[in-house]
Design goal:
The chain is of the alpha+beta class and 229 residues long. It is built from 3 helices and 9 strands, in the order H-E-E-E-E-H-E-E-E-E-H-E.
Length: 229
């Protein structure tokens, strides 16, 4: 065998080997493990941190609950005492009234049917709200104790309820009035049931204003009447 022939054969063998090796690499498959997926932040899933969304971005996963305009009113959509689960705001304005001239009217808003600032001396002021809800919201006893809690007073026993109330009959309404003097603010409240709703008239503020406005508050309640005779 000549050197030229040996070299040619050797070259052929090497080429075949290289080609086979290249073909092996072409058909060899590798499976790499998947990268771990990072957990999305709560804002992207509609979780509790929806305030982290960019400004102007609509909420994800539903509209978050918002606080009502009146800080003393329950949040819209909350369940009424007694498990009624009804809307918290009456849908109509079935009652009308005439406010004293020195009360300063404010926008009513989505919770309040009426809203006033009652001015006092030296820039002091009390707040008067008129709200209405379906049903009895737990009853007279529960509502009186709720107001007591708002001015820092302990609850009373049900046997003490009637002695805590004044009664006023006007324009077909039987109105229950409560006067509460707390360690800070004081409160004048009136509860008016009407056509399956309960209307609340509440003045809260410094004791000096509440004491001075008591007679005017009662006269204000005498003007309360049905919107339609």
């Amino acid at each position: 065998m000549s050197l030229r022939r040996f070299s040619t054969q050797t070259l052929v063998v090497l080429l075949v080997t290289l080609v086979a090796g290249c073909d092996d690499r072409k058909i060899t498959a590798y499976r790499a493990p998947k990268d771990a997926v990072a957990a999305l932040p709560a804002a992207a899933t509609g979780g509790p941190n929806t305030n982290d969304l960019p400004p102007g971005h609509p909420p994800i996963g539903g509209t978050p609950a918002t606080a009502p305009a009146d800080p003393n009113a329950p949040m819209a959509g909350a369940q009424l005492p007694g498990g009624a689960g009804l809307p918290l705001v009456a849908g109509d304005n079935a009652i009308v009234w005439t406010a004293p001239a020195h009360w300063i009217a404010k926008p009513a808003g989505s919770i309040r049917k009426g809203s006033y600032t009652v001015p006092g001396d030296g820039g002091a002021a009390a707040d008067l709200s008129v709200t209405a809800v379906p049903g009895d919201t737990g009853g007279l006893f529960a509502n009186v104790n709720r107001w007591r809690g708002q001015v820092g007073l302990a609850p009373i026993a049900e046997s003490q309820l009637q002695s805590s109330l004044e009664h006023l009959d006007a324009n077909g309404f039987h109105i229950e009035i409560v006067t509460l003097a707390g360690p800070g603010n004081s409160l004048l409240g009136a509860i008016v049931p009407y056509n399956g709703q309960t209307w609340f008239f509440k003045m809260a503020g410094p004791a000096a204003i509440i004491t001075r406005e008591k007679a005017g508050f009662v006269e204000f309640l005498r003007t309360v009447k049905p919107a339609q005779p």
